[in-house]
Amino acid sequence: MRTSALTHIGMSVPVGSLTPQHRTDILAFYGDAFGWKEMRGVSNAERLTILIGAQSYINLREKVEHQPMSYEHFGVLVDSADEVESRWTRVTELGASPEPLKSAADAYPSFKFQHLLPMGIEVQHFPSGQLGRD
């Protein structure tokens, strides 16, 4: 039996880091870059919950035992190779420093970046039917 979807990503941040300004910065950047928005009914002083899809979200939670990360990241899927390039351009315009764009000639169109969140994000496009093939 396979799962049907990834519902959320949980990330810890140091206590005191979810200041009103940092929340505003996160929501402004990711709202502009990807259309993500806060789930106000779920967020509180120690938690920022961001809706990233119809049934998926990110939970940022202040934790005393927070540990910095290195390779950890999550991927977001976009509808086309052109959209990967468009998102790369937009996150760059918004002040992030993404890795170089990988083109379809390299593999699948994608790029990674880390900005304002403790985890990195890989933006990618898989041609129809390519994801999940054995």
Structure overview:
This protein has helices at residues 20-34, 81-93; strands at residues 8-14, 37-38, 47-53, 56-63, 73-77, 110-113, 120-124. By secondary structure, it is α/β, with parallel strands linked by helices. The protein has one domain: 2,3-Dihydroxybiphenyl 1,2-Dioxygenase, domain 1. It has a four-stranded mixed sheet, covered by helices on one side. Strand 3 and strand 4 (56-63) form a beta hairpin. The longest helix is centred in the first third of the chain and has 15 residues, at 20-34. The chain starts with 7 loop residues before the first strand and ends in a 10-residue tail after the last strand. The model has no long low-confidence stretch (mean pLDDT 88).
Brief rundown of the structure:
The chain has helices at residues 20-34, 81-93, and strands spanning 8-14, 37-38, 47-53, 56-63, 73-77, 110-113, 120-124. It is α/β, with parallel strands linked by helices.
List the main descriptive attributes of the protein structure presented here.
134 residues; alpha/beta; 2,3-Dihydroxybiphenyl 1,2-Dioxygenase, domain 1; four-stranded mixed sheet; three-stranded mixed sheet; 2 helices
Low-confidence stretches: none
Number of distinct beta strands: 7
CATH architecture assignment name: Roll
CATH topology group: 2,3-Dihydroxybiphenyl 1,2-Dioxygenase, domain 1
Please give the oligomerization state of what you see. single chain
Give the N-terminus to C-terminus distance in angstroms. 15 Å
Structural class: alpha/beta
Averaged pLDDT: 88
* Order of helix and strand elements from N to C terminus: EHEEEEHEE
Strand order of the largest sheet: 1-4-3-2
- Portion of residues within helices: 10-25%
**Full CATH superfamily name:** 2,3-Dihydroxybiphenyl 1,2-Dioxygenase, domain 1
The largest sheet is:
4 strands, mixed
State the domain count: 1
Question: What is the class in the CATH system?
Answer: Alpha Beta
Strand content: 25-35%
User: What's the total helix number?
Assistant: 2
What value does the Rg take, in angstroms? 16 Å
